[in-house]
Structure of LPXTG cell wall anchor domain-containing protein:
Amino acid sequence: MSTPLTRFGRAPARFAAAAAAAALGAAAFAAPAAAQAPDPTDSYYDFSGPVTAGEGTRHGAFGLFFGDDLEPGAHTVAFSLVVDAHESTFAFEGFDERCEDFPGSNALNCAEEKADSAVFFDFDYSAAAGTEPGVYPYAVTIFVDDEEVDVVEGDIEVLPGEDQPSSAWPFLHGDAVFEGVEPGATVEVQPEFLQEHAFPEDAAAVIVTFSEPEYPFGDGKGAAARADYDNCVDRYFDSPGATCVVTDFTDAPGTVFTPTVPVHYDVNERAPGPVDVCVCYYSAYVVDAAELEARFGDVEWDPSGDLFGLRTVSEPESEFADSTVGEIVIRTADNPWDLTVADAKAKGAKGSEVKVTLSPGNGGPADAYDFFDGPGSYALFGTLPTGLALVDVAGEDWHCLAEADWDDYLPAEDPADLAKLDFACLIGELAADETKPLTATVKVTGSVAKADGTLEIVALDNDGYPGGLEGDPTNDTAVFSVDPSGSGQLPTTGGSMTMILVGAAAAIVAGVLLFVFTRRRRSAAEE
């Protein structure tokens, strides 16, 4: 059986050798470098699992994003993925001709020749039957041409298969669901789980783990777990969360248990709503003395102290189904954001080139989170007034699309509407009370402006996700005008161009393979 490592830094020599071999394979895809290779400005890695040993596959994906220093079509972008595990633990399939696996090596290479500014690879992966449950470290090495530009380290979780001994996972887990939680509130979580099997004779402790939310609600943006008890630590394997060790336990098949004290989940006070800010997981399982010491050391505490324990439940309220995990779902109450954009005016004489500040922002009270991976979850669309020609538009954290990419990102748009569009810029997130300006450089081409242009800020949507979280749509549009004489205010004569937002987001999810945060399923068979 393969044994996971709990820390990436402890990877043995076999991992270093496999990584080097896979890196050579990835570099073999690459063309000779003509100059210093550009670094990616952003990346996306969907390879965290969990995957159940011997039970089907999960879908994985990697995305890389580059700035203006990567000339489209002039470079080869490649990556090498290697998982630290015994030979033939992980297998890869379902990838296209750009990728190559190495059977038995737990490695996958992919390369995009003549790469654009956004590169995506997707694949399926699985863990072999008999793989030891736990967390396995991996490394992804990124190459541009033949130059290594980045290394990303992470972990993937493997759950036990149904054919593995059930004594270590004797519980069936119930879910804990909380609706209408006010941002800034604390949720007390005490899930129920049913003991289905007797404990093994060498059982030394019951371990109960609690995870924190994944993207985009990690790093405290959704809900942070807290278990302030003497026999708990503030980690979920090597990730944020909580793990509690119970050595004073009762072995009673057929009994429903729940913690004697709650684990607290603190909801971010600026989290939007209504939305699931925590689709988190807990697990209860048994370890022997050797594993207990290896993972937690000398577990001694004052029995009269503040301890996390287990008690029986005489009238359970949960349904019990999964032997490895239960869900903790926290859904916020209404807490909208307010996307805004201000009017803008270009002033200058005919033939002059001027800079205009565009001022989209978020009036709060909620932060506008980055729900979609890739260039952005929010867009500023602009049409210029007559008498102006666009030279450039750019802003910090904004990704302004080339016109050639509009069909890829906005495939469902009416061609007539696209023909009116002069620029489209995307951004990942907008904090409450934040303005993220852009600078539009324009040339004054006429002495008379016959019609104003428009500015419109929108939240992208994919099949109803994340939902209608805009608090005041009346300030989502503004006027873009021009004063070709250099002074004075022209009347507003134009209207807002309404964009089909679902089409835009559908392209981000499908047309360019950007990946929406989705709820992790309990087993591969449910995905």
